[in-house]
Amino acid sequence: MLDVRRLKVLQEVAQQGSFSAAADALSFTQSAISQQIAALERETGATLLRRGPGGVTLTDAGRALVSHTVAVLARLADAERELAAIAGLRGGRVRLASFPTAGATLVTNAVSVFAERHPEVELSLTEGEPNETVPRLRRGEFELALVYDYGLGSMDLEQGLELVHLLDDPLSVVLPPGHGLASRRAVEIAQLAEEPWVGGVRGGLCNEMLLRSCQEEGFEPHVAFESNDHQVLLGLVSAGVGVTLLPELAFRTGQADVEIRPVKGARKVRKVFAAVPSQSYRSAATEAMIEVLRAVSHDFTADLGAPTAYLDGNEHGLRDSRP
After folding, report:
1. For residue 70, what are the CA distances in angstroms to 23, 60, 78?
2. Which of 55, 118, 158, 169 could be a cystine partner for 247, CB 3.0 to 4.6 Å?
3. Total H helices, total E strands in the chain
4. Do the two domains 4-87 and 93-316 of this chain adopt the same fold?
5. pTM above the 0.85 mark?
């Protein structure tokens, strides 16, 4: 591969018409100029300059190489300007992936803030569960992915990834309107052992979370309906066909006539992370998006000071049956 620095020397010699003038223009010694041209001629295997009493002139090979050099140096200058723009967040891109409930809440807020601050950065969003998006993130298809972990050990999120903790998303019991336990401030999962359940599709993380939570309380839940769409699950509970466990983010994406109560006993949460490949280059735009996600998540966590379970129906269509 030709040395770009030597191409610059050849171009300068051609413009100046002599080694000495090129040396002055480039702040080189005349000997250094001569050595650079000699090395370039060895690289190309061609004579590039004719030396005469009136100075130097380009050979046919030299003229061909200089014409390409002009184009190469122009492209390099464009590349330097584009890189500088990306570093200053005046360009570049962030390809983002997110699971649905974060996409409908945290990500929409984050994208709005980011786009306002950095309108020249190209943003894109793909939706999927972590078991779908994490392999693609590792392959370099995204710069960043929002993922979650119930602490079940079924996904090794740390392999090849760096995780930035955004928030703990608490789980709550979801009951049909007028359920006998709706008057309680908190509900033990074991109290629902005989109830029909609705939950995530078998084999998914949400289904595994529900099964494990019930098994820890000493029973196998009878899962009557399965869906990975939290709004479908909320609708099924509202219709009175079962109960479920859902994270707080699921209650911020729509309305349903249900009773939501904290889990009594050990606090159950899913941890939400921004995941990036640990060994790859992280652009300034990606770093900026992580900071925006942190801020949005902080605001969401602060809002949990008034849990959705205790909000009145005017806010989320949720019923408050506290005694």
Report:
1. 19, 16, 12
2. 169
3. 11, 11
4. no
5. no
Torsion sign over Cα 306, 308, 312, 315? positive
Q: What is the pLDDT of residues 264-304, one digit of tens each?
A: 987 889 999 999 988 777 888 899 999 999 999 999 888 77
**Token duo for residue 213:** 């939570």
Query: CA 42 → CA 2, 19, 169, 222, 290, distances in Å?
Result: 10, 18, 65, 79, 50
Instruction: Give the integer Cα–Cα distance in Å for 62 and 68.
Output: 10
> What is residue 259's DSSP assignment?
E
CATH number of 4-87: 1.10.10.10
Q: Which residue has the tokens 């002055």?
A: 24
- Per-domain residue ranges for the chain? 4-87, 93-316
8 A C-beta contact, residue 236 and residue 211: no
- The CATH class of the 93-316 domain is alpha beta
